[in-house]
Write a structure and sequence with these properties.
Elements: E1 4-7, H1 16-33, E2 41-45, H2 51-57, H3 68-73, H4 79-86, E3 88-89, E4 96-99, H5 105-112, H6 123-129, E5 135-139, H7 146-154, E6 157-162, H8 169-185, E7 192-201, H9 206-217, E8 225-230, H10 233-240, H11 245-248, H12 253-269
Helix pairs in contact: 1-2, 1-12, 4-6, 6-7
Length: 274
């Protein structure tokens, strides 16, 4: 079964979009190097800011008819077809496909609240095209809103990106509780927490080192750390050029850290393909 990985956290600026886009691109490259029969990966952008959409397609002007919004408001029988029609090729790689966000997603939740089955308006149509991809990666907005619930209900695995300065136990436990609520409250046992991804780590800062040490020592959270991405100027430079970190500078510290993360995820999620 195709794994669906969601990156989520209620805090903004923690590297969700950077992580989602580079994980998706990294999986494409890894699958291809492993000579997998299917190296296609779908990136789904559920954040109205559309950062993941912009950097991977070079566009941010998707509208009501050619973006995720079209799928969410479509007649449920037509939603899989409309979703397929709304998927666009990325500029990064022909095997990386994108279901783009649009600014109008801001209004989608207001339109959908109260509608029967609203939380499943992404999961249901996505399940129809899921077999066509080796993996699906979902980027979310910085809140636990209806849109994020949709993403979690469509996912099989969740990663929580977090900056060192946000490594409070309370905040991380809150995120884990929300995922657990979706798993149990919505009867979605397929959803698992895949890990905590520490981003923008600067070992020169004593506070960062102390917070990371505290995280590793926590009896529950310490076991969930799946990667540590160093603070690296290559990240902002690659964003500016709408490039992946790997393409911008594969030797950069952040590129190497993401490569290790992608390898780790592939071993967990794509054992039959790689």
């Amino acid at each position: 079964m195709t794994p669906v990985l969601v990156l989520t956290n209620h805090k903004g600026g923690v590297g969700k979009s950077t992580s989602a886009t580079n994980i998706a691109f990294g999986l494409v490259n890894l699958l291809r190097s492993a000579r997998s029969k299917n190296a296609k990966v779908l990136l789904v952008d559920t954040d109205s800011q559309g950062h993941a959409t912009l950097v991977t397609t070079g566009r941010k002007n998707y509208d009501t008819h050619d973006s995720l919004y079209a799928t969410l408001v479509a007649d449920r029988k037509e939603a899989p077809r409309i979703l397929t029609q709304s998927i666009h090729p990325s500029t990064w790689d022909p095997d990386l496909h994108v279901l783009p966000a649009s600014p109008i997603l801001e209004t989608a939740e207001r339109e959908l609240i109260g509608l029967a089955g609203a939380p499943y308006r992404l999961a249901d149509p996505l399940s129809k095209i899921r077999p066509h991809y080796a993996a699906i990666v979902i980027d979310t907005r910085p809140s636990f809103s209806l849109m994020t619930e949709m993403a979690l209900l469509a996912a099989t695995h969740a990663i929580i990106p977090v900056e060192p300065r946000y490594l409070e136990t309370i905040g991380l436990m809150s995120a884990l509780t929300k995922i657990q609520d979706i798993r149990e409250g919505w009867r979605h046992p397929e959803l698992k927490v895949n890990g905590i991804l520490v981003t923008k780590m600067d070992k020169r800062i004593k506070g960062h080192r102390q917070l990371l040490d505290d995280l590793y020592q926590h009896p529950t959270l310490g076991k969930l750390v799946c990667g540590v991405i160093p603070a690296n100027e290559a990240v902002s430079y690659s964003h500016h050029r709408n490039m992946s970190l790997f393409s911008y500078d594969h030797r950069a510290a952040a590129s190497k850290a993401y490569a290790q993360l992608v390898t780790h995820l592939a071993r967990q999620l794509l054992t039959k393909q790689v």
